[in-house]
Amino acid sequence: AVVQAVVAVFGAMAWTDQDRAEALREVLRWLKAWPTSSVDALGVDCSAASGVRITASAEIQPGQVVLRVPEPLLLSALHARRMPQYAPICEAVDALFASSPAFAAAASGSSSSSTSSSAGDKDLILLVLCLMHLRHSALEKCQNLNTSATATATASAATPISWDEVTLQRWQTLLPDSPADTDAHYRFWQAYALLQPAEYTTPLWYAESWLACLAGTSVLNASLLRLQELAGLFRALFPALACPTLLPPSACTWDAFLWAVSAMDSRAFKLNHPHLVVVAAADASKPNAAATTFMVPVADMMNHDGVAPVASSKRIDQAEKEEEEEGLSTVERTGAAGSSTTQHTSALTLTFTMRAGRGCAVGEEVSTIYGQLPNAQLLLFYGFALGSKDNLNPWDAVELAVQPADEEDDPLRAARLAWLEWIGAPVGLTQLVSVADPLPHSLLQTLRLLMLPEKRARACLSTLPPPPPQTKISPPPLSAQLVMRALDAPGSAEDEALLRATLRQLLEALRPSAHISAEEYAARLAAARADGMPPEVEAAIAALRSGLEALADLAVARCS
Predict the structure, then answer these.
(1) How far apart are CA 156 and CA 133, in angstroms?
(2) Is residue 12 within 8 Å of 163, Cβ to Cβ?
(3) Model confidence over 245-273: pLDDT tens digits?
């Protein structure tokens, strides 16, 4: 009965955009009570076309503080360990890691590239469990109010109360009265958890028929692998985790776990906290700030703009320059590896601060940049993709795998692969084809080395010493010069024609249409629509596929 009640409320709490917008305005009003916060430049807009957006309530100048959130109001494993409300969860996680090496191994294998941190997987799991508890406990409170409010409405036909009104009113009561309240942090995050989507649009949430539409893209295999890893972690956590007071069985469902992981994947930031210092093993005199994963209210509601974001420059003001030089922390959005988004926390005031990189007019959306991310990572971690065939995501890219010939066909295969390893990046069997560089020179060099005719290859590789087992050494300088000169020098017309044909074949294979026909894709799309695929998911998959086709067009044109 308890499970059914909570599940019923979980569905009912899928607020309309108007509900969420009003609640977010209440969050901004509440944050103003914190002495070191700054949200005066921000407002909330809601429309059918754009949904809920953070907008400028006043004109924003370049370099101006857009958002400042006090560090005590962030949420992380660090906060959980210093607050009594989360103590049972912390103790249960520590006990599970200490008592079960198999669980520790499963946890290590399930960490995604977007959320790994120097603090280790234990802190990430602790943050996921805290999010699960916060959501569950907040939904229980709302369910209790629903019961009493419904009875009141039934007794008084003159003043009926709609479900939307009840949930919004109850949500407002979750917020603490004052930041000075001893449980202000805990109650705030109970309320804020209900502002997150009840479901996400990342592939982790796709039905099987929706996943089938990803055929021909790297996102399909990445999604299936991620789901497999998370399922293993879920089975290792539950029911082994012993924390019945804060995480009863009704809170530990697969959907609740997936929701918390998705919230962390798509909304968390990686911060180098100035109060967390680790001593470098190589030099104990050079302490480094320790990175951990934080949830940041309001900042996580800003949409991504990879071209001209408002909150893109995250510099420290001149007044805080001294703190910056003394080791001020840097913040990165944790959406995917390679993110370049940075914010700073002041070592003096300990606030998360975002600054404007450009001007922003009143009513304009206040966007940020999650990183210089390709569409595959945007879809996998955030649930959307950008651009079209005529307006590409400028950071779009895809990995291209170069396959060497078999030993039966190439007696010099081992020598060629040894040279690829010794020369090192960017030459190698994995190449990055991007909008910025659709035909990297290193790809041509790699193909030339793998396809050098045997006579020329033997001449170039004749000075190569036998590679020591399990040992990486640098190639002899003279031999390296011979090989690199050969990699940059066109061969015979016949050799070059073969190289270009092989290159074109590799590039054409980047297209989703090379792996699934238009007719088959249309059939899969029809099945996915019949299975309830929402328009935003269909649009994201279409943008991903269109971007890959356009990227292949660019590369093939450059090849010609």
Answers:
(1) 35
(2) yes
(3) 999 999 999 999 999 999 999 999 877 66
